[in-house]
Amino acid sequence: MSERWVPTLWAAVLAVLMLGPALGPGFVLTYDMVWVPDLALTSDVLGLGTGLPRAVPSDAVVAVLDEVIPGLALQKIVLVGALVLAGAGAAELTRHRSLTARVAVVSLTLWSPYVAERLWMGHWPMLLAYAAVPWLVIAGRRWAAGERSPVWLLPVLIAGSLSASAGILTGAVPLATGLRRGRRPVLLLVALLAVNAPWLVTGLAHTAEATASSGFEVFALRGDALPAPLAALALGGIWNTSVVPDSRESWLAWPALLLLAALVAAGARRWWTSESGRAPILALWVAGLAIALAGWIAPLALDDLARHVPGLALFRDSSRLLPLGLPLLVLTAAAGIDAVRERLRGTAPRWAAAVVVALAPIAVLPDAAWGLAGGIGTAEYPDQWQQARAALEEETAAGDVLVLPWSSYRAPEWNGARPVLDPLPRMLTRPSVVNGDLVVGSTAIEGEDPRATAAAEALAEADPETRSAALSRLGIGYVITDRTAGDSAQVSGETVFEGSGLLLQRMPERSGPLVGYSTGPVALAAVAGAWAAYAVAWLVATTSTVLLLISIVRRQTARVPG
């Protein structure tokens, strides 16, 4: 086996070790990670609902791809692929270093607090963005040098831009490393706009909702066993303490930081004097750390500002953008490992050092292994969920679906009582109205969807008949209730499906005027144009990927003796 493939193989081993039971039968459902067997391409998925388009374009991509690849298999491919590509990208970014250094940076990249916490939080688009970062540094440097851009650039950009935060992260990297005078930067900007067009345009169509609430203080950087700024240096510090591995709350967080700091310090001078393109890498690190610390230093000021600046709330979960510092950590740590390695004499000490630096990240974060020590696992959806979906598909009455109980997160027994954003709306084939409020500890952050606010007012009516009439005027044609998720308001309607845990009801015909929440023609045209640009980017990326695979096969075939 070629030495070049050793780091990638090591990345695959670490990916399997980290995911563990998550690779078994069933879906991984944890916090914001909600996958279903067959996601329908509804108006909500396209960003045309009344709520903020938080899952644009990721849900639309999944809805299309799971027509070709079953959703269960697609989820496993995404999770394993993100981890392997992250490690392989770090190794490729340091390909001029020793094999020991490249294997070690794979461990540092995969076995990090960021990966563990975002995986547990279910932020799979951010994991793909994290994986894209080192590859985009490579592509940006080639672009800046006037070389031909790699064939894989556009596919990597698409994979790394499946949410707004992910798009900001992956967009910043090629802009920092690749922008130079001339016409070529125009092509780069066009590519970045195309792959981010869906969330940019649908987000602009919801500017009023985007300033409705903020929550910088709730989502601010948090410390673990380390103070928040030091946790950020190690790419940790997520706001949700429930997804922080226990080892990050123990003394092990300190040797983890010291290990990383020692390697970076040992290699900083060598990296600075031996490599070009240092300023953009340093600027990315400063930007990522500054954004993360801003929400920690001045959350209330940012709260006030976000109420007047649409889109600023995208930065409230500020530690999402810490991977901007990943290239600096990888490059300096690799240089540091080689500096230490060169001081060792003899094969045995060098082998011992190689083993230590490859395994040390795992030793200081041991509970990232095997499904985050049981934090994530798999689950099968109850049969009645598919039955309710089928029953709704057969319905001909107009109207969207309201989902009860009126809360956003669930902890179903069939999912091992693990918290997850309610999967029921994604299981259905019609647009859904759900409660967008988020409760973090004792703090409640109001959702931004005006239709959901109106639905909550309708549910507060005195009796089931009045509630149903009010919901009908909002364009709600059906109400589905998960009886296993707690008590909920009763509504009056005809039963379409009833199981041991689910109840699907058809609302009575509307009496009175319909409360309108329609998208205007200009916004519709803009959204259609954004998705068209995105489709073209996908077409070009798919074509380039096929050509790349053909070229690889031809090269391999040519090497085989005839």
From TrEMBL:
Keyword Cell membrane: no
Ubl conjugation in keyword set: no
Alphabetic keyword roster: Membrane, Transmembrane, Transmembrane helix
Residues spanning the membrane: 68-87, 122-139, 151-174, 186-207, 251-269, 281-301, 321-340, 352-373, 522-550
Name this polypeptide is given: Uncharacterized protein
